[in-house]
Design a protein that fits this description.
This protein is of the alpha/beta class and 310 residues long. The protein folds into three domains: 66 residues, Winged helix-like DNA-binding domain superfamily/Winged helix DNA-binding domain (Arc Repressor Mutant, subunit A, Orthogonal Bundle), CATH 1.10.10.10; 114 residues, D-Maltodextrin-Binding Protein, domain 2 (3-Layer(aba) Sandwich); 99 residues, D-Maltodextrin-Binding Protein, domain 2 (3-Layer(aba) Sandwich), CATH 3.40.190.290. It has a five-stranded mixed beta sheet, with helices on both faces. It has a five-stranded mixed beta sheet with strand order 9-8-10-7-11, covered by helices on one side.
């Protein structure tokens, strides 16, 4: 088994056909068929079943493809890293980011990072936790910046703390609660809420918090993972939401959304960098991570992250 054979296998797996794979990798159909046959002989399993329209992978092929995908991504990364080391000007950074940071801190850090590194290519995926972790585990992403989960990570991942803060209660500026010095938790229950879906970590924290306070659960009218939807609803009605502060930082600065002071409720927002366990980052990736940490350390808005809802 070698890298060329694995790449040909992946082409057949993805395209579901020998002919389509042949055109993709520029190798003759007989050569690819022979490579698959040798691979099956080596592993002593059947990888594909022939169909009238092509081939269908077996469960053995599914298992091999998961590992071959990682190898393929690592080979691509190695080529780019060696090119970057040789020229000292090129490289690639592939990262995933949660919605709260994609349009603010990370994008701003990325813009300043690239000003002096015009030949580094960046691929940024904005997504939710499951999508980001899958990308890191498969090797498609070098790392992901996301909220630290409340459950243990898989053995495929390692995490590094980036910063800690608090989720913040937010409303529109003319909301009845917007000018209260200290909002009582019960006051929040007089208004409709918009939150991420109820099977998520934040909803669980809200439920536990209000149970502990001996209060009924909030009236959650809308459940959504869309930051844009949350902000639009806040602007259009008397909704209350609980968000990572960077999600609404620009709107707060423009006085389109107000942060409430709720001293008796503190729900942590811990952000981590996720990587594939045992992987080695390229120089360009490490350079961007260092720049991101420096940007966070010098960002005056970070004071909003360090305080509670007060």
């Amino acid at each position: 088994m070698n890298s060329e054979t694995l790449l040909q296998f992946l082409a057949v797996y993805r395209r579901r056909g020998i002919g389509k794979a042949s055109r993709q990798v520029g190798v003759s159909q007989p050569a690819i068929s022979n490579a698959i046959r040798r691979l099956e002989d080596e592993l002593k399993v059947t990888l594909f079943n022939r169909t009238p329209t092509g081939v269908e992978p077996t469960t053995y092929a599914d298992a091999l493809a998961r590992r071959a995908e990682v190898i393929s991504n690592e080979l691509d990364r190695a080529r780019l890293e060696i090119l970057g080391l040789r020229t000292l000007t090129q490289g690639e950074v592939r990262l995933g980011v949660g919605p709260a940071l994609a349009t603010s801190l990370v994008s701003e850090a990325l813009a300043s990072f690239l000003q002096e590194r015009s030949k580094i290519v960046v691929s940024l995926l904005e997504g939710l936790f499951d999508e980001l972790t899958e990308g890191v585990e498969s090797g498609r992403l070098d790392f992901a910046v996301t909220t630290n989960p409340a459950f243990p990570l898989s053995d495929e991942l390692s995490s590094e703390p980036l910063f800690s803060g608090q989720f913040r209660f937010v409303v529109r500026p003319d909301h009845p609660l917007a000018h209260s010095r200290n909002v009582r938790p019960g006051d929040l229950l007089d208004f409709p809420w918009v939150l991420p879906p109820s099977d998520g970590m934040l909803w669980h924290s809200v439920k536990t918090t209000f149970d502990t306070l001996g209060l009924r659960q909030p009236d959650v009218r809308v459940e959504t993972n869309s930051g844009g939807c949350i902000k639009a609803l806040l602007r259009s009605g008397l909704y209350v939401s609980l968000v990572p502060p960077y999600l609404v930082m620009q709107e707060v600065e423009l006085n389109e959304i107000a942060i409430l002071s709720v001293p008796s409720i503190q729900i942590p927002w811990d952000v981590v960098v996720l990587r594939r366990a045992g992987s080695t980052a390229s120089p360009s990736t490490e350079a961007f991570l260092a720049h991101l940490r420096d940007t966070l350390g010098s960002d005056e808005r970070a004071r909003v992250l360090s305080g509670a809802n007060q």
